[in-house]
Design a protein that fits this description.
Mean pLDDT of chain A: 96
Oligomer: homodimer
Strand content of chain A: 5-15%
Strand order of the largest sheet of chain A: 5-4-6-8-7
Shape of chain A: globular
CATH topology of the largest domain in chain A: Rossmann fold
Number of strands of chain A: 8
CATH architecture of the largest domain in chain A: 3-Layer(aba) Sandwich
Radius of gyration of chain A: 17 Å
CATH class of the largest domain in chain A: Alpha Beta
């Protein structure tokens, strides 16, 4: 079964997801891998700007991409952009194939792998935070979510994400994320969700002494399960 | 203009190419990047096996992929698999969009950047070596090519490529390539061509004290030039 990747949000995050998809596939030869089609449309308007009331609605672009992937034979669609998930409920009715939900998959993984955690720290775009994407799903599963204060969000998290989108994977944006993570640890977080696909590009498995959960990798495993 | 990637040969090499495409694109935001569509069909029969008389002709699969990319709006197609280039002359007539030639682009780059070199060492699949893909183009440009002896080709180069295709980017396959590179240096090579897209995944900018030219990166720059 072919996996469709609705990508380009951003491009490096799409590459990271594709790489994690390959890592999640047991394969000894090229021919053991899963067929993949990628639609990476960089003209999709900024998802976070739309959610914070500062830009156009990206839904029509997402629908167009999902259509293209379906026409190419994708049997399941993965969207490696957390913020785009705020719009997916309006995209799903326009295609016949399932679109995976990385927020649901991530919360399911937290419930399975970290049931002892009470408070989760969320590192994400301002749009994802404002829309409550993770907070609502985590609350329904019995978890409390803490987020950075608005200044830390803007000056550290949003700025680091912007740097990655411009190709900077250096130490400075990684330090900003570490700074924000330290604040979440002080607020009681015992687990961090790298809830923007640019953030795992800056982090390892731990940050500010907390374990980091990578929704990109979670989505990749879910896509491989769905396609096999 | 949209770049079409005829990929999956192998999947990790496709990811590497996509990453190098992004690196070659001047961009500060998601929206500055080029639209990309990827068709990664792992069922394409082994290209090297076909060229050494041990497997089916992959041309129909390549034509199918090129058609799909054209239908998706690709204005130029890049094929990040050196060995597949042996079949591209039979694929090109089936699409109206140009298909870039990574062998030609690489030899052009050698002529520009390394005009002082007389002998080039080729690290590639047995299929690429047997078909003379690089040797013929390099000879036409005035360069001599040296290749590993058949045992080194099989036990070091081919085996290392196979390991990468199985996801092993560890020290052992890298050492095998270094071993083969040492042989090419002893045969007079003053520059190495990492002429199989799996090989740059194992090497840096130098190997066995020789500079390494990476056709994947060359193809990425050519694709960005063609699309802008």
């Amino acid at each position: 079964m072919t996996i469709g990747i609705l990508g380009g949000m951003g491009p490096l995050a799409t590459v990271d997801f594709y790489r994690k998809l390959i890592d999640a596939t047991p394969a000894a030869h090229d021919q053991d891998h899963l067929p993949v089609v990628v639609w990476a449309d960089p003209t999709v308007p900024d998802r976070s700007a739309a959610l914070t009331g500062c830009g156009p609605d990206p839904t029509p672009w997402l629908i167009r991409g999902a259509h293209r992937l379906e026409a190419l034979g994708a049997a399941v669609i993965a969207t490696p952009c957390n913020t785009a998930h705020a719009f997916l409920d309006r995209v799903r009715p326009s295609v016949r194939v399932p679109m995976l939900d990385m927020i649901d998959e991530t919360v399911r993984e937290i419930r399975t792998r970290h049931p002892e955690v009470e408070t989760v720290g969320l590192l994400a775009t301002a749009g994802t935070v404002t829309a409550g994407l993770y907070q609502d799903t985590l609350a329904a599963a019995g978890f409390k979510t803490v987020t950075p204060d608005p200044v830390t969000q803007e000056d550290y998290v949003t700025r680091a994400i912007r740097r990655v989108k411009a190709g900077d994977l250096g130490g400075e944006p990684a330090r900003w994320i570490e700074e924000a993570a330290g604040q979440l640890a002080a607020l009681g977080a015992r687990l961090l969700v790298a809830g923007c696909t640019e953030i795992p590009l800056l982090l390892g498995e731990m940050c500010a002494c907390l374990p980091v959960l990578d929704p990109t990798a979670t989505l990749a495993r879910a896509a491989v399960r769905a396609a096999r």
